[in-house]
Design a protein that fits this description.
By secondary structure, the chain is mainly alpha-helical. It has helices at about 25-35, 40-60, 65-75, 80-90, 95-100, and strands at about 1-5, 10. The chain has one domain: DsrC protein, C-terminal domain (Arc Repressor Mutant, subunit A, Orthogonal Bundle), CATH 1.10.10. Helix content is about 50%, strand content about 5%. Strands 1-2 form a two-stranded antiparallel sheet. Strand 1 (about 1-5) and strand 2 (about 10) form a beta hairpin.
Length: about 110
């Protein structure tokens, strides 16, 4: 299963995660969001870009609890809580933040 934008094809796994995070750009994120029925807002972008920065800085993906705490530390308590994150990504904040950020599927996600 691959993702095609205009004439460029991006390799994905069977769940739609990019195989190479270096393929990521905003157009890829927009297409992944469309494919997953997520209408991107500024709030989504804030979390997506946070997730990319986290991964580039720490070279690993957090579990859901660490993710929520890291968001709270960086972006504030009003955004670093599961209620807010689930409003943005109802089917799994960590999973979909990583997917739309072009990162691997977190090992703790089903």
């Amino acid at each position: 299963m691959d993702l095609t934008i205009k004439t460029t094809c991006f390799e994905t796994n069977d769940q739609g995660f990019l195989l190479r995070s270096t393929d990521w750009n905003e157009e890829v994120a927009k297409q992944l969001a469309d494919d997953n029925h997520i209408a991107l807002s500024e709030q989504h972008w804030e979390i997506i870009l946070f997730m990319r920065h986290y991964y580039l800085q720490y070279k690993h993906l957090p579990n859901a609890r660490v993710f929520t705490k890291a968001v709270a530390k960086q972006l504030g308590e009003d955004k670093g809580n599961s209620r807010y994150l689930h409003k943005l990504f109802p089917d799994g904040p960590l999973k979909y933040a990583c997917k739309l950020a072009g990162l691997p599927k977190p090992p703790t996600c089903l």
